[in-house]
Amino acid sequence: MKIWKHIQSKLALDIPVYLITVIDNTGSTPGRKGFKMMVAQDGEIFGSIGGGVMEYKLVEKAKKELHADNPKILFLNQIHKSNTSDSSGMICSGEQVNVFHPLNKKDHLELIQAIVLINKGTLLLSPDGLYYSMNTPPLRFESNLKSETVWSFQEQLNYKDRLFIVGAGHVGLATTQLSTFLGFEVTILDNRKHLNTFMENGAANNKFIINYEDVATQIPEGEDVFIAVMTNKYAEDKLVLSQLKNHNVKYIGVLGSSAKLEKMFTAFELENIQFNTKPVAPIGIAIKSETPEEIAVSITAELIAIRNKGYK
Asked: What is the fold, at CATH topology level, of the domain defined by 162-307?
């Protein structure tokens, strides 16, 4: 949302800008779908489409075009390979498509003000311009690329993956703080009233005291839902997981020692409990973490890997 505020401030001063957006990427690329950058006519820039020599070249191109009489919408496919005649100058082996949309006070200030004010809805980019709708699309991104002149890109604004942390102890607090900083919408669930770490958790978007037998009704299903189970008791971890066995979500992880988790999943096998979403246990990337903050780094790193289609 910060980039829209920067664009709004420039247009309010009648300073034209280019909005550069990555609308598609394949392979290894510095910029990912949805990355954005503002380049203003006064030389100010904000955001990033991947950095490096590619970004520098595109920024310089945007600055030059902004001083033309009638800046055009541009479609630039960047090939990050050294052995091609149209190489971007980078060698990470992928490709990314960047589009430039010129924005000015007369035609776009009210639209940008609406995006900043409402903070949700749909952004639509095409060779015809930039459009905004308050309706929320089902997908985060949707690209339709047929040629340099026939294409469209749709984005759900202010999209956030949702993380539900079951267990509001010290690790839950640290994980909330880090994961909200990294763009997750976090809900904390616990069954303990007056728990100090629950009450002190000001980073969570939502906090609820619940009965763990009802946990399945408190957590929705969906490809944008991540669940981290970290209650303070073996029996409660097991209860929570058993209630979530039919949930279809992006990820379920369980905090605990290997011995505890082996015992738990052996019990599930004996009880013939199967999961629609197989839990990851133990949760987190192995970095020999010890403190709640270190464990939170381990957990959040794994969430990022899953969110970005990482190794698991």
From this structure: Rossmann fold (3.40.50)
